[in-house]
Amino acid sequence: MKEEYDFSTAKRGAVASSKGKTRITIMLDEDVIEAARERAESAGTGYQTLINNLLRQALISETAHNLSPAAQKRTRTVKPYANGITRSDVKDLEKRLAAMTEELHKMVDASRPGKAKASV
Questions:
Q1: C-alpha to C-alpha distance for 72 and 32, rounded to whole angstroms
Q2: Separation of alpha carbons 118 and 57, rounded Å
Q3: What is the pTM for the complete model shown?
Q4: Which regions of the chain are under pLDDT 70?
């Protein structure tokens, strides 16, 4: 071990980079997190990985079944938000998140003892 190290060019940040991943902060219900942790533990994986996979499946399923919202007629010019994201992109994302939240709630309800499982 050296007696002195040079940190003059050091940068703060994650110890290991995750290519293809973006760190975000998201608020989820405690029971959703608990259900995800339990399911992830039984599957031998991490709960964040499980949530990522569930979201991916929901998006793929939506695409495969053509459940995406129909394009709306526009009467005004579309002005993009930051990074080219449009208002319609945000509204579409809100709808997708609502659908995924509903699916997560169904999973939580199904995993609770004493709760009747909802038939789909």
A1: 33
A2: 20
A3: 0.43
A4: 14-17, 62-83, 114-120
